[in-house]
Amino acid sequence: MGRYPTAERLMAEAIEEAGRSDFGPGDFREGLEVLLGSLERDGDLCPEADAQVIGDFRRRLVNRLEVEAWYAGHPEVEDVAVRGPVDINGLPRTGTTALADMLSLDPRFRCLRGWEQARPCPPPVRENEAADPRRVKFARDWENQSAEHRAMHIFELDATMEDTDLLGMAFHGQQMVLPVPGYRDWWREADLTETYRYHRRVVKLLGSRRPPDLWLFKAPHHKFHLEALAAAYPDIRFVMTHRDPAKVVPSYASLVSSITPPADGERDLARLGREICDHLRIGMEHAIGARSRIGEDRFLDVHHRRLIADPMGTVRDVYDWLGMELTPPVEESIRDWQEANRVGAHGTHRYTAERFGLSTGQIRSDYDAYIRRFDVALEG
After folding, report:
1. How many domains does the chain have?
2. 117 with 219: CB under 8 angstroms?
3. Does residue 154 contact residue 108 with C-beta atoms inside 8 Å?
4. Does residue 181 fall inside a structural domain?
């Protein structure tokens, strides 16, 4: 008997909770088993964290059951249009969130909000969104975050966010905030074709009662499986952000270490740093290979240094590339956002490579091919 439940037990508990048994299409079972196995072998969590972690797995299984029940009762969802999407990806900590938050201010984009992902059913309705209990809870949870975490990450309640829960419902998500390196070894090389097909299924449901239908996605982890994403969304276009990996890697390691549930004892930060450095490098290698096969014309490269120096000019570059007009009201909203979120407005995120057993020179050496491929500016 292991510390963590089996996939069979979790699925049975979800069926009992939901009162339904159809989990829908896709290959979620293998991912769930690999994830639980990795947590058993690799995990260092304190026992008090187990209930929350396993509860999240069970919630995602219940979500699958509810999605299928909604489709059964609302077959018209099958015909819901999904335009685009525009997908912002790249290495994390490179400006993906800032760029996504600014574009999310344009009402022509349909954003994939975190609060609706957490419980997709019933799909949201614009007129009732402000008081939607899911949205209210999401806002309250953010208000309870520490000042340290607020300094690390910009948060906008109704901006597009990482599709952590959608991929989590397929148990083919990155799971970076859990100590499961064995699972991530498997996930990096897994075929996510069915996963993103299921992803589109949930996106259609979320958009079924809440226009518009031009979607905006943002997820650095998309870079690992761009071709599978493009197969599910044939009209997708990609905006890829870039920054000196000597800044990216320790910043991301710091963020991950702050939001991973507490360890049972002292967590090995050098091990975490090494894994993150390798993980992100492999992801970018995947992305470079995929770009050549998908077509470079479907990618726009945005550099962090320019985004910081000229955020509005960068936004205009994106709109020009998309063939969309940056309207005066949207431009004004973006300028207001930029003023409210200028560097340091929410505190300062302090981190060092050495805390995670890394060095600037070693990181840049590991990422030399990436730096040269995209002419990435090195930061002092």
Report:
1. 1
2. no
3. no
4. yes
